[in-house]
Amino acid sequence: MSKMEVIDGKQTTWGGLWWHPESMCFTSKVIGLSELRKFKGHVRVIVKKNRFYNNGENNKPNYVFLLRDAKSDDPMKLEIEDMDLQKNPYIDEDGVYRTEDGERLYTEEDVQRAINRAVEDGHCGYYSGDVIVSDYLPTY
To answer: Which of the chain's termini has less CB crowding within 10 Å, N or C?
Structure first.
C-alpha cells in the first residue's frame, strides 16, 4: 500500500447537485472514493449556485460543489452509519413517500406543480382528453 499524501493545497473537480422535489433533497452523481483514499487531512465542502443552471434545461445541476483542503484545529468528524429505512417505513431509499402497499404519495408541492402545468397547458389549447396524469406527476 502506498503512503497517503496530505491534501493541503488540493481540491477536487466541481460536481453537480440536482434538486429532486419528489424527495425534497439534492443529489450528486455517484462519487468514487478510490481517488480520495490516497489523501489524508481535512477538507471543506464548497457549494455555490451553478451560473449555467437554466431551470433544469439540458440536465444542468442547480448547484455545484467541490472538496477543498481546510487547515483546521477543530475539524468536524463525520460519522458513517447504516441506512435505517425502518425509521420511517413510509419513505423509500430515494426519499419518496409511499403507502404500506408501496403506492406513491405526493407532497403538496408535487400537486401544486401539477396544477400549474395543467393550467399552462390549458392556456396553450390542450383539453381534458389531451393529457394524462403521468404528464404532470411522476408515477414511479
So the answer is: N
In this structure, the chain runs to a length of 140
Overall pTM surpassing 0.90 (yes/no): no
DSSP letter at 102 equals -
Predicted confidence (pLDDT) per residue in 75-121, tens digit: 666 676 665 555 566 666 666 777 777 788 887 877 888 888 888 88
Burial of 98-121, coded b for 16+ CB within 10 Å and e otherwise, reads eeeeeeeeeeeebeebbeeebeee
3-state secondary structure of 128: helix
- Between the two ends of the chain, the Cα-to-Cα distance in Å is 44
User: Under a CB-based contact definition with an 8 Å cutoff, are residues 106 and 137 in contact?
Assistant: yes
Q: CA-to-CA distance for 90 and 99, rounded, in angstroms?
A: 6
Cβ count within 10 A of residue 38: 11
Q: Residue 5, CB half-sphere, CA atoms under 13 Å: how many? A: 9
Q: Does residue 24 contact residue 96 with C-beta atoms inside 8 Å? A: no
